[in-house]
Amino acid sequence: MAYKTIYPYTNETLKEYANNTAADLEAALAKGHALYKKWRAADCLSERKNQLHQVANLLRRDCDKYAAIMTHDMGKLIGEAKFEVMLCADIADYFADKVDEFLKPEKFETAAGEAYCVRQATGIIFAVEPWNFPFYQVMRVFAPNFIVGNPIILKHASNCPGSAAAFENLCKEAGCEEGAFKNLFLSYDLVSKAIADFRVQGACLTGSERGGSSIAEAAGKNLKKSSLELGGNDAFIVLDDADMDEVKSILFTTRLLNAGQVCVSSKRFIVTEKNYDRFLADLKDEFSKAKWGDPMDSTTTLAPLSSAVAKKDVLQAIQEAIDDGAECVYGNEPIDLPGYFVMPTILVNVTKENSLYNREIFGPVGVVYKVKDEAAAIELANDSSYGLGNTIFSSNIEHARAVGEQIETGMSCINTGFTTLPELPFGGVKNSGYGRELSRLGFNAFVNEHLIFTPKETIARHAK
Ligand code: NAP
What we know:
By secondary structure, the chain is α/β, with parallel strands linked by helices. It is built from 15 helices and 20 strands. 49% of the residues are buried.
């Protein structure tokens, strides 16, 4: 069976799940489509608002339970898992609270008559999600689509089936109607079949470029709208006038949260000559504070990676970088525990020819670059096929913002590490994907902006 919970701390298989069949998929499509039609015909918005608020209430009430499920699926620290559950509750409340404002008809000025757009549901959205934030990634798609009236079918990552099943049960317990959210343990073939089905009106994926291009191909071939949230190789730019104490205070989190398995964690630290030595010393000092061990123990600060394959991939990427001439100045030593731990590692001297130069490492590895000046920092930051997030540190906020605007990326944070909030859009450019989740922009991802136009002659005739 492909869908399994293998606890990354002990390497034990805790539970296996049978794959769903083509008949299960058909049943989910039929139920989801019937519900979409019902929601389209009758005004059920207030019921959905109550249900979404109830999802938030249950998440807060049962935070510990959901957090433990995620930790057992993919190894994240229990404290980080609880934070994720609470963030999901905030996202659910946000969309339930904002939907009336987001649905207000938008007027368009035209001399030809009167025109406005209404925002309406389009049908079932098929979501393919990753394991690194097993609840948060799902909630980013579920909350805006559910509230507007688009049912969701989920194919979650094969290593977090416990979280996928728990999310479905959460929706049921909150009173969401059958068909509103359906988790299926599907093969890739059935994913493509689902996206091709006439009842599915959109597809989204958060994950790798490989997964993204496969979902986008299925969507494009079948003329379905898609949105992709893919990987990143985010720059963290430290300018000459950066407050280095402020920089140091976030280094641990910005690279080691979730054991470094965060799409928007800072992966390339680009530091001007003036601050380079201090920065490197600070990064080593912060990485040396990592305490690996039991992710259920609240004093542990570094989680295991999510799977044996994830650990192998990270170690291999480090070795290939070293073989290509990078220098390891901290870490890369074995950890004698059964879990999938990788020691926080710092690499320097990564040249343009190095395999790591334009590659995302999904683990606790920071690459540090020394650059002559700000112009060189911007050039290096942009010399990437990714464009997800970016961080700039400078004592001059206006200047830092202006530098941020020069980076080819979807999100730039000033004097702070990556940030995600329900009301802020999330997404990237280049190979980091397209489309946005969260905020008003995420709400609009799969809605029909339906124009209602009345010519002025018609209005005049009817006025008589
Ligand atoms: P992945 O292999 O692409 O997996 C993500 C999801 O896609 C899983 O559910 C996976 O299912 C599914 N999948 C992959 N290939 C597929 C195919 N051909 N057909 C159908 N489904 C397919 O990604 P990952 O490597 O596990 O996840 C980490 C990546 O996600 C990193 O690159 C990270 O940066 C990125 N990420 C991006 C964001 C963002 O918002 N931009 C957020 C989080 C993570 P299986 O598990 O069954 O293979």
